[in-house]
Design a protein that fits this description.
The complex is a heterodimer of chains A (about 220) and B (about 240). Chain A is an alpha+beta fold. Chain A contains five helices and 13 strands. Chain B has a single domain (about 1-130, about 140-240), classed as L,D-transpeptidase catalytic domain-like, CATH 2.40.440.10. Classes of the chains: A alpha+beta (about 220), B alpha+beta (about 240). Chains A and B meet through helix 2, helix 3, strand 1 and strand 4 of A and helix 1, helix 2, strand 3, strand 6 and helix 5 of B.
């Protein structure tokens, strides 16, 4: 009687093991199937050297094409997520430091007016360079400050000294300029422009000629 | 009891057949598109490295014709890059990566025909938003403007996990390396749940099982965030392994 109970116990144990392990069988078989694929191995055929040499030639052509893509002169890279810039010449890093980019604030003025303060991504060029730039405040600057919007050329639109000693334009009103708010460097606080500290701004201004590339991501 | 066992065994047998035929079905679905470019003379493991590097460089050349920012995963040198117009604008280290065994077993001719072009990403989802937009109403006067002046929240921490499904069925999981907090683990679990739900819903949509090769890559959290937020709406990826 006791022997029968033990046998039944062992039987149940095996049954349970079978039920638990069986669902793994399809996956195991699939893995075995994948391992069975052959890439082609064994003895190297005679013509393989010729094939390899042709591939190496193709590779040399492609490498040549790729090497031409990197700008030879100075260029600027802006990381708008980390709020960091890199000034480079070819593969060489000249300077990497903090900057400030767009805040991603969407400012709404009633139902009809809204602005998105975001730094645009992509490839740009330096289109204009200015010393002692004057900021002509756009409408949003007044709306954001809770002030009435003045006429297009009203004196209150012009602010001196707030953009630092230099500015570089990349088009569509976006500038690389200085800031009075140095403590915010490294944070996303701007209205879309790129802010640098005074020292970095001077270096970027001196290093980038008109037409130099600016990559923003 | 016996009937239950038989039914259970039949179900297992059915799934075995379906799963075993999955990789073949996946390869034949790729083969339809790639057959014309297949060059079987390169199908020898002796040529693996040169074929793989050539495919990678050819894809980079193709990528350089794109105007937008694109992702490059170089799993041989453990680096991930962002490229614009053929220029590498961002580089980060891949801490760990896993490439599906089926992809590693592809014959060189098929590997080249798949990976010599940037791969189109059809679907992307992530645990972070693409653009962290903060909506604000214009203040009514200067006093209110001063009171609500915007200062970014530097203490806000978000876990970053990104899932990409490519047009050719490959799945890419980009995961943050850091898993230090409970929130990170919870977000990872949430991410995996969404991935699995997505996988099953695709299976049900297609009504036939095809193997789904997967590439898993771990990157530093802040770098992964930068990569994800930089990618355009129709991103492409180049993979080298």
């Amino acid at each position: 009687m006791r022997e029968l109970k033990i046998r039944q116990g062992v039987g149940t144990y095996w049954l349970l093991l079978f039920i638990v392990c069986l669902p793994l069988l399809p996956l195991t078989l699939q893995t075995i199937r994948i391992f069975a694929y052959s890439k082609g191995s064994g003895e190297i055929p005679e013509n393989m050297k010729e094939v390899e040499s042709n591939l190496q030639k193709e590779l040399a052509v492609v490498n040549e094409l790729l090497s031409k893509k990197t700008p030879k002169g100075n260029y600027l890279i802006i990381n708008s997520t980390a709020n960091e810039f890199t000034l480079k010449k070819g593969q060489e890093v000249i300077k990497r430091d903090k900057c400030s980019t767009g805040s991603f604030v969407k400012l709404k003025n009633g139902a009809n007016q809204q602005w998105m303060f975001k730094t645009p991504q992509g490839e740009y060029r330096i289109l204009a360079k200015t010393t002692s730039p004057v900021w002509k405040k756009p409408d949003w600057a007044f709306v954001e400050a809770g002030l009435p919007v003045p006429s297009a050329n009203h004196p209150s639109r012009f602010e001196y000294g707030v953009l630092g000693d230099y500015s570089l334009s990349i088009g569509n009103g976006y500038l690389i300029h200085g800031t009075l708010y140095q403590r915010f460097l490294g944070l996303p606080v701007t209205h879309g422009c790129v802010r640098l500290n005074d020292e970095n701004l001077k270096m970027v201004y001196k290093s980038l000629p008109l037409g130099a590339k600016v990559y923003i991501f | 009891m016996k009937i239950t066992l038989i039914v259970f065994s039949l179900i297992i047998l059915f799934f075995s057949v379906v799963l075993v035929s999955g990789p073949d079905r996946y390869l034949s679905s790729l083969g339809d598109d790639q057959a014309a470019t297949n060059d079987v003379s390169i199908n020898h493991e002796h040529l693996d490295s040169v074929v793989h590097v050539l495919s990678y460089k050819e894809a980079l050349v193709q990528l350089s014709t794109e105007d937008s920012i694109q992702l490059v995963l170089d799993l041989v040198d453990s680096n991930a890059y962002l490229f614009i117009h053929g220029v590498s604008v961002f580089k980060t280290s891949v801490s760990t990566s896993e490439v599906d065994k089926l992809l590693k077993k592809l014959p060189n001719s098929m590997h080249r025909s798949i990976f010599k072009n940037p791969l189109i990403i059809k679907k992307v989802f992530a645990t972070v938003v693409k653009e962290p937009i903060i909506e604000r109403e214009a203040p009514k006067n200067p006093e209110e403007a001063l009171a609500v002046a915007y200062i970014p929240d530097t203490l806000k921490e978000e876990s970053v996990f990104v899932y990409m499904r490519l047009a050719n069925g490959i799945k890419i999981s980009l995961e943050q390396t850091e898993r230090s907090s409970l929130t990170d683990w919870f977000d990872y679990w949430r991410f995996q749940t969404v991935v699995q739900v997505n996988r099953w819903s695709e299976l049900l949509e297609n009504r036939s099982y095809k193997y789904q090769p997967e590439i898993r890559v771990q990157l530093p959290k802040n770098d992964l965030m930068a990569v994800y937020r930089a990618l355009p709406n129709n991103p492409k990826v180049v993979v080298y392994f």
